[in-house]
Automatic annotation (TrEMBL):
It comes from Lentzea roselyniae. Residues 16-283 form the NADP-dependent oxidoreductase domain. Keywords: Oxidoreductase. This is Aldo/keto reductase. It comes from the Bacteria. PANTHER family: NAD(P)-LINKED OXIDOREDUCTASE SUPERFAMILY PROTEIN (PTHR43364:SF4), NADH-SPECIFIC METHYLGLYOXAL REDUCTASE-RELATED (PTHR43364). The keyword Iron does not apply. Pfam families: Aldo_ket_red (PF00248).
Length: 311
């Protein structure tokens, strides 16, 4: 297992992140964690909204300091309570305290904002996150499922006001769902934010887990065939190939599994030759659209920035 720094911090995280939402029994979770840790994995991801997952994880996490434990807040804890959901300070504090009790720990390594809340001012969210970091209950913060402009604004505010910035970004990303390449991935690269990709196997569509007739679109079937073909040529599993494609530019796949066997099919380092990458992407064509494609065209033309750009 290789490791990467988490954003612009010194925190080392494994290249493969483990999503624990699907873990429902302590026996099952303990076996999965043992396989993951033995392979060198160290990042465990859960959320307040997963409920049972946090409790199971807390019961089996015997080597707590060995792991980078991440949870999320935002989603409602009680749909009848108007303040039980959202990114405001009250929900942050109550969600975090609930997660700490469930996880049987006095701090989490990473607290993610689970979802952009357009009703809560970004200043309130960032200051509240900084407060729990300064209190020692959270070490680093990240954000999931939010517009690029919001993340950029939040980190600019954090820089100006000496608050804790977002070090990580969670987005859905796989061979058949690449829209984050338009704005979110370039933004994260420019700001030094690590990217965690949820659904890197497209809910099993790229790993062979969903192959029954009528379950896949034409685009998904084309991508799945290409993944299987490349896997056969490289002597790898389809999951390993699909994850290697996600990892190629430093993105960290976040894999959710139920059994050690599923996890084992994802482990192992696979390096994709450029020809294999081209074949995979040709099977599921993608256009970045405006402004990315337009800017790229301009940058390659002397008309925009003079003859020096082509020299």
């Amino acid at each position: 297992m290789r490791y990467r720094l988490f954003g612009r911090t010194g925190l080392r995280v494994s290249e493969l992140l483990l999503g624990t939402m699907a873990l429902r029994s302590e026996e099952e979770a303990r076996r999965v964690l043992d396989v993951y840790a033995d392979a060198g994995g160290n990042f465990l991801d859960t959320a307040s909204a997963y409920g049972e997952s946090e409790e199971v994880l807390g019961a089996v996490m015997e080597r707590r300091d060995r792991f980078v434990v991440a949870t999320k807040y935002t989603l409602s804890r009680d749909v009848r309570d108007p303040n039980a959901g959202g990114n405001h300070r009250k929900n942050l504090v109550l969600s975090l305290e609930q997660s700490l009790r469930r996880l049987r720990t006095d701090y989490v390594d990473v607290l993610w904002v689970h979802l952009w809340d357009r009703r809560t001012p970004v200043e309130e969210t960032m200051r509240a996150l900084d407060d729990v970091v300064r209190a020692g209950k959270v070490l680093y913060v990240g954000v999931s499922d939010a517009p690029s402009w919001f993340v950029a604004r939040a980190n600019t505010l954090a820089e100006w006001r000496d608050w804790t910035p977002f070090s990580g970004l969670q987005v859905p990303y796989n061979l058949v769902r690449r829209d984050v390449e338009r704005e979110l991935l370039p933004m994260a690269s420019a700001l030094g934010i690590s990217v965690a990709a949820w659904a890197p196997l497209a809910q099993g569509k790229l790993s062979g887990g969903t192959q029954r007739a009528g379950r896949l679109t034409e685009r998904e079937e084309s991508a799945a065939r290409a993944v299987r073909a490349v896997a056969e040529e490289l002597g790898a599993t389809p999951a390993q190939v699909a994850l290697a494609w996600v990892r190629r530019d430093g993105v960290l796949p976040l894999v959710g599994v139920r059994t050690p066997e599923q996890l084992a099919g994802c482990l192992g380092e696979v390096v994709l030759p450029p020809e294999a990458v081209a074949r995979l992407e040709a099977a599921a064509p993608f256009e970045r659209g405006f402004p990315a494609d337009f800017i790229a065209e301009c940058e390659a033309s002397p008309f925009a920035f003079g003859e020096a750009v082509v020299r």
